[in-house]
Write a structure and sequence with these properties.
Elements (H helix, E strand, L loop, with lengths): L3 E5 L3 H13 L3 E5 L2 H10 L4 E5 L7 H9 L10 E5 L7 H6 L4 E4 L4 H11 L2
Helix pairs in contact: 2-3
Protein name: Cell cycle response regulator CtrA
Keywords: Phosphoprotein
Organism: Cesiribacter andamanensis AMV16
Length: 122
Amino acid sequence: MNKKVLIAEDSSVIQNLAKKILQFQNFDITAVKNGKQVLDKMEGERFDVIIMDINMPIMDGMQCAEQIRKRDDEKANTPIIIISGNARNYGQEDFDRVGANAYLQKPLNFDELVEKVHELTR
């Protein structure tokens, strides 16, 4: 059975690229545009990993990661990969604080992304 990946990214270009590359690796992809949609999707589904941009409308990736970690079920432990183009605003301690499992900088190195997704879904 294919692993399920949730991609939260408000850039359609990055979202579509990540989607195609990961589908090629036999992952089932669900894509949303903001953190609130991530939380909504998690109500009805279980994902093996979440890839989330920091800068998104309505609810950003950092707030969303915090909300996921506060859940009182097994979904609270879903691996989270944070992606961002302006990580200068954040340090490793910020990613640790919100419970992110990995951080990747934009422009995305898709080989690295695929490697991280495989690593976190083993």
